[in-house]
Fold these 4 entries.
Entry 1:
Amino acid sequence: MRDGRIGVVIWTLGALSAAGILASAVPAAASGNGIAAVSPRQILAKATKAQSGARSFTVTGLVRDGSQTTGLKVTASSTGNGFGSVSLNGETVQIIKVGPNVYFRSGSAFWAKQGGATAAELFANKWVEGPASNADFSQLASFFSTAQLTSQFLGDSSSSAILSRAGTSSINGQPVLVLKGHDRTNSAGGSIFIATTGQPYVIRVSLAKGGGATGVVTFSRFNAPVNPRAPKGAINIGQLKGASSAST
């Protein structure tokens, strides 16, 4: 699983942080929560801090990179618990993270590609359980940490990227400031939309052509309660592996 199709999703998320979401200073008038009064680099820093500090948020969107299309509908929390789904070229994986464990479920086509006909017969449309600390499942667990998702989408400062203001807009009634950027080294480009009232949360990230990935990801439902429950009757992968080892 570590080298399978789930790993492609993490790579795609990492590519978002290379989409030119970094800053050069351009002064502007203060507005709302005050982020328009500081430089783009400072705007990004404030947005990153607010986003990673949120108790929870939901991420929805679709990202295309070459022949790979990744869809996200995930609710993450500061505790690392959450729920949602990830689709990979039309194959959907449902995921729940509760405490130290990850639970996921998908159809026969997914499992056939992962482990052949036997895996499809054993696991298709059934909940499978594994420890989040295990390398095979830690990537799945990372979808449900607000801090880790923020890092994946917003990345770190880099001198190879330039960002400037691109005006203001509104997303679902939320006024936003638009930052548009590009990377000098690979032409990757994109825009980031940051709330100008209340907390300076990132409301949307849009990827433009040039760096490979394209698509739009939207953040919503900040600080909503997140109380996922472990599904009943999940198949414990660790126990199966132990039983298999004991019988050989």
Entry 2:
Amino acid sequence: MRIALFVTCVNDLVFPDTGKAVVRILERLGHRIDFPEAQTCCGQMHLNSGYRPETLPMIHNFVRTLDGYDAVVVPSGSCVAMVRDAYPRHVPESAGVAARTYELSELLVDVLGVTDVGARFPYRVTYHPTCHGLRTLRLGDRPLTLLLAVRDIELLGLPGAEECCGFGGTFALKNADVSAAMLADKCAAVCGTGAEVVAAVDNSCLAQIGGGLSRRRAGVRAVHYAEILAETS
């Protein structure tokens, strides 16, 4: 199977260790991963802000760059939601590659049939299901199934887990007070679990939550779940 990594602009620029973690996981399972250098932003922020003409070249570039692969793996629920939900509606010829674009847990569980990736992570962890993964992709228990198979992990339930963290891309900028209130509730819930780490499928949401926890001096790290699955020691 030919698999390409679409790393996303947020991960590429701010959280490169997440992309590296995806490669380590899949190579450990015996797969070769390509990283096409012509990839750019998926255009989610532009389209959500009303800049459709500016988004279309990004969609066409995605198709041109990644259409030859059997699967495209993306460590971001929100970007996969953009590709699978929005792309075919705006560029119908993107439907084929959009259907072969997967969030990491979908690729591992549904396509490769793997739930135990051989990871070890001896920490107390709670999991936040991000909005796009929860409501658009309907990831369900896939990420939790992968985390439950990690050796020595203590996975703790998160009260109000399905409530938004308040990020929402430009929502956090345009509705700062509401976003801050939502974040405060989420941080309180995370702290109440006694976890050392909060994990999620989107680093954008983890940046929001991690920032709130840092300002509280909560001592809880925000870590993309791919980085947990990549750990073996």
Entry 3:
Amino acid sequence: MTLSRRLLTRPFRHVWLKLLSVGLALLLWLVVSGEETVERGLRVPLELTQVPAGLELLDEVPATVDVRVRGASGTLSRVAAGDVVAVLDLHTAKEGRRLFPLTPDQVRVPFGVEIVQVMPSAVAMAFEPSASREVPIAPAVDGQPAPGYVVGPLSAEPRVVEVVGPESAVKRATEVLTEPVSVAGARTHVKQTVILGVMDPALRLKTARSAMVTVQILPAPLERTLRNEPVHLRHLGPNLRAEAVPPVVDITLRGKRDALGRVGADDVAAFIDLAGLGPGQYSLTVHADSSRDAGVTRVVPETVQVRITSGTP
């Protein structure tokens, strides 16, 4: 076959495939052109880019803005969260209050979507020079130690941490807080690694995020002795009689002055548990209950003689 003949016949090679492609393109055009153009309101995230080094935002900036979009109904129905994003370039920001326009050109959209309107059309922001300094950690505690004990000195390691933020907020900072350390029922020192935080949302921690807090638990400063408290015999079996010798004891309490002053005779009970014991002579330990404001430090005597006899004639 000559070259001229091959050139004449080449346009007709795979003619069915070419006709199929044209048909599909025509069908796609008919589908797209047949879709209705609609508008829709969306709330989209606002991203801040190129914030100059050494500057800090003073105010809360809106996390989202409202936009009105236009496009084919099918295209808009496929728009997902994150497909449309408003981007605000802050490379021109300077110290003080500034107004930054927000236009449709600053909104990223998928192909086939048009931005009709952005609300608000401008965002006001205030900037201050960035600053940092070290402030002390202020440990916090939760709960009450065991009766007769009090919370003593608190310490943290490290003692200070560096906070960073707008210059005015850094100057106001006086302390860094910790999550509370539980001392409920404690009789010995408590150590716990806790998370650090600042109350001012404009501030942040430069490095440290946690600290080791030590809470000293100390015996309460004062004691008070209740004398001749009766010994109660608990859980005596049926048809049994019991007698304690001596029948009374002295109970020493420890606590704060105001707490000890509130303790009355009805708030303290000396007792012996006789559960499971039958007739006989026993030397048993005396226990004592007290109010939660004061702890029992001593019972004198610590043991008494208990005689259990049959109650039947």
Entry 4:
Amino acid sequence: MKLADTLIGRVAALDSVVVAFSGGVDSSVVAALAHLALGDKALAVTAVSPSVAQGELEGARRVATHIGIRHETIATDELARDGYRANGRDRCYFCKTELYDRLAALARHRGYHALLSGANQDDQGDWRPGLKAAAEHGVVHPLHDVDKPTVRQLARHFALPSAEKPATPCLASRIPYGTAVDPAALRQIDEAERAVRALGFDVLRVRHHGILGRLEVSQAELPKAIEFQDEIVARLKQAGYAHAVIDREPFRSGRLNEAPARPAASR
């Protein structure tokens, strides 16, 4: 694949790299490129924190093993940052600043020349304050001119286990802007989403509105969610929500950046 060769050459010019590696499709492609370009001079690093859903680390490890890239974890503490807990529209800036501070320190200590992220062309069109943090840390985005469908094509080309993996952003993204982020809310969101995912749903978000949990699923899975409404509502309540609804408007990435989140009547 010509594009893959071009991107491998792009990464090879960096000499040695640390990849911010979540195990999602974007960072997985970057990790594969880095390993092919630089071998042992590439290191994938996964951040572990309360804002990461359970199971994500295990998934990242599986992908790293498949690629063959060296893989490590670091602990991040974005909840110690006032700007992250306050949950303004710039929340991701503080989260990514925490991540890149830790990765930059690791890279300096270990002698790596560059930090890489999986940000792609599609990320330029949405509200992404995390890109500001990346720019402040000199992070390189090898996929900056590659759109998301092509990123997935690259993932299939490399036979990555994450090729079809839905995006799984920070759990705090389920909390409306202006509502403070706390560990208990993150745990509740994670428990609720795992409970619904266990019913066979792939693309979903549980939006956290205090005592109300509002489930969004993909357009394709919305009829199934309505069919299993009673079971879903029961599982959301078991996770600690006093009230639970299924949004009749399907999940769409970036939706909360367009307007304040609001509950939608279901039951």
